[in-house]
Amino acid sequence: MNLRPYRIIKRKKTKTILVGNVAVGGDNPISVQSMTNTLTTDVKKTINQINQITEAGADLVRVSCPDQESTIALKTITKNVNVPIIADIHFHYKRAIEAAESGAACLRINPGNIGSGERIKSVIQAAKDHNCSIRIGVNAGSLEKNILEKYKSPCPEALIESALANIKILEDGDFTNFKISVKASDIFLAVASYEKLSEITDYPLHIGITEAGSLNYGTVQSAIGLGKLLWSGIGDTIRVSLSADPVEEVKAAFQILKSLGIRNKGVTIISCPSCARQNFDVIETVKIIEEKLSHIKETISLSIIGCVVNGPGEAKETNIGVTGGGKKFHQIYIDGNISHRMEQKDFIKHITNLVEEYAERIRI
């Protein structure tokens, strides 16, 4: 019996494709990706950044390939990282071919922008020859000229028409190993476009709010837009696009997925905003503990509540709970049961050790 049916998200069933060794769509986990912001020709810096993004938990990493020097560099990059690389291609069909030959696991392109039918066929053939998937990347900011002239400005119908036209190009080339995105910086436009596209196709969808903004504002924008889509069961792979370190994009993506119970990774801290009832400095305590536990990969819930009003109730719903019981003592719960009391002295160290020990037990 499911005691919390309100938590169930029914995800739309889509086709499964492979991006390197990562399965996207179907019943596979929603994958998280980010993109490097280094010069791709600076191989050392690019590899280092990819490794940082991967360490943060990314399943896929996109790399820009605007010129031949970048696609040549890609050959070394792909051999020295442990994550499938998506080559970001815009207009030049030769860059797409070179990227496939250099080991890219996926090509992010708009087939309609590549050029003649023969050029498109050559890109599709390169993808087939090198077991490379494709992402059709429709963007409100770079719609085809004829579509923009027809609709006058970006709208859901315009993005959908572009997506369908590009789908037909690939299908006519007998190529179906692709996913689709219809991104916009306007969350209403993006959400409406993805909802319409989800109704008419079962290809996997890469969802994102493009150019969402700074770390704080962009995270909120993305949480609203992506949260709405994911809650509706739409989305097979995601990127949170921020004007920030790519690692922050990965962290934000996992926070969104974690909030919806889709992918739980690491320690989830449930904490109160603090008030005059608090028996210790909740804000500073959470800040320190969150940093000290950032290395833990196991799924663990930790509640840190400053007083006894909501503390016991929250503690019973988490793996480890802390309730401020008085000026000198705090009540500690393990798996919903009262475990022990402790003094304020070495409080943070004690809680950190408890979580690390818990992680070790469930890891074995």
User: Tell me, what's the shape?
Assistant: elongated
Question: Are there runs of 5+ residues with pLDDT below 50, and where?
Answer: none
Count structural domains. 2
The helix/strand class is alpha/beta
By CATH's scheme, which homologous superfamily of the largest domain applies? Dihydropteroate synthase-like
Q: Count every helix, treating DSSP H or I runs of 4 or more residues as helices.
A: 13
Order of adjacent strands in the largest pleated sheet: 8-7-6-5-4-3-10-9
Mean pLDDT: 91
How much of the sequence is in beta strands?
15-25%
Textual characterization of the structure:
This protein is of the alpha/beta class and 364 residues long. The chain is built from 13 helices and 15 strands. It has helices spanning 43-55, 68-79, 93-101, 111-114, 117-129, 145-151, 156-172, 187-200, 215-231, 246-259, 282-292, 311-315, 347-363, and strands at 17-19, 22-24, 31-35, 60-64, 85-88, 106-109, 133-139, 178-183, 206-207, 237-238, 267-271, 300-305, 320-324, 329-334, 337-343. The strands form 3 sheets. An 8-stranded parallel beta sheet has the order 8-7-6-5-4-3-10-9. Strands 11-12-13-14-15 form a 5-stranded mixed beta sheet. The radius of gyration is 23 Å and the shape is elongated.
